[in-house]
Amino acid sequence: MSTVFGKGQQGQNEMTTQRRKNEANLRLTLQYYSKYGKLTEDHSLEQIAPGLASLEFMKRNCPERTKLEEFCIQSGQYFEFEQYKQGDIIFHYGDIGDKVYVILKGEVAVLVPRAESEIEAEREEIGQAKLPFDFEMFWRNKKPSKQIQIEAQLAQQNSNLYFKDNVCMFKKVFQFYSGQSFGDVALISDKPRTASILVTSDQIYLISMCKKDFKISCEKSVLEMNQTLDYFVTVFPCIGKMQISKFIQFFHKTDFSPQQWLWKEGEQVKFFILILKGRVEIKQQQLPLYQVSDNSFIGHEEILEGLTTRQYGCKILDNTIAYLMDYEDFNIARKNAPEIVKVLIEKAKLMTSYLERRKEEVKKGQANVQPLYQPVERRLIQDMFVIKSPRNNEVRSNQPKYLSYFDITKFNKKKAQPNSINQQQSISEDLYFSKEKNVKTTRSPSYYTQRVSPMNKQMKEILMKKFKLNVRFNAMKSLKISSCKSAYDLRNKDRFKTDASIDN
């Protein structure tokens, strides 16, 4: 218990230090906006740009390839100055989102509706009290003083939304301070406000930006938020978008480099992650146990069990992109998203059981690392781009190549389809010497004369004379016809360059 208290006290001190640092960075910005209300002159915008550049809101929404201070100068003209006092409600639960706010100085509390069981239990306890009922006196020793102060301020709102029958209907789940922003979730999702904002400091000074200007100047943030919501809907398919949007507002995306330790065994529990893309390895006593990859939660087991130290080490293996949530933020987010917490508990049980099984395997000497979830397929380049070799029975291939006359003639002869001729048909001179018949000149003249029946003597003599005189001429003519046909089809004279290696 003392460890938890010490950790809470340390976190409170760190928050106070950061708040004072932010107020110092924003002092000049507060002076300009409180004096002019809205800045339009370039000189004034240049003066407050360094202060705005220190805000996480501006860093998160700055477009890529744009200098941060230039973005602050452009966006600074859309902000308007606003001021509230302690006990004021900046906006109510269920309101339509119309502005986003950045705190220059002061604090606010984030209020959400209480569970019905808590309300009924408190009503029964108050019902047993003596009349007249004094709210602050009744709860003085039963609730923290800060909580009593907030509930007393809500009682002054004179609204049944916040206080009914001496019972407070809302509870504080978070607080924002100087340098932080709030109200952008409703603008991005176009949903009603999911919380009320109560001013808890004496005074608060803010700058606000309307919904229209926010979507113009912070287009990157709107796009990324919608993409993030779509991604988490796939991670939690059975949970409503409203509950998911409440939960993911505490996540922030971050990159990790290979061989980096997220945490080591025995270190303090500070956060958990959801791996968007990448791979990590779980180790215990320097022995690898298993690996997890895309869409996997890691580090939430100890948080759900209430442990303060890590039971194992976690090391990055590949370039990894992940969503990270701090320990303190998770304790707040889990109150707004009980269904998501149930899913995380189931995943934690799976991790714990697998870890115990791997320990037993390691003791038996079976220390091979087995991935718990199959990683995304990573194909080698030679598997993605397979170069097919040309078929052996084709001269032409997909790759450019010089062809010889011999190659072209051979190819055309294979593709040519011979005509079927009836044996009773007479052979004429034109039909005999046509390229479609593909006559082989190496055969004897008697081969053709024997096939002709009937055949007169005069035609036989003419045919024999023609054959003897033109036996060489016909062979050259056949080659010439084939070559010309190929040239007509290819329409590229450069491809007819003779390949000496083939001709020889």
TrEMBL record:
Any one cellular-component term (Gene Ontology): cAMP-dependent protein kinase complex
Coiled coil: none
Stored CDD domains: CAP_ED
InterPro entries recorded: cAMP-dep_PK_reg_su-like, cNMP-bd_dom
Annotated spans, Disordered: 1-20
A GO molecular-function descriptor: cAMP binding
Boundaries of every Cyclic nucleotide-binding domain copy: 84-215, 235-331
Protein name: Cyclic nucleotide-binding domain-containing protein
Organism ancestry: Eukaryota, Sar, Alveolata, Ciliophora, Intramacronucleata
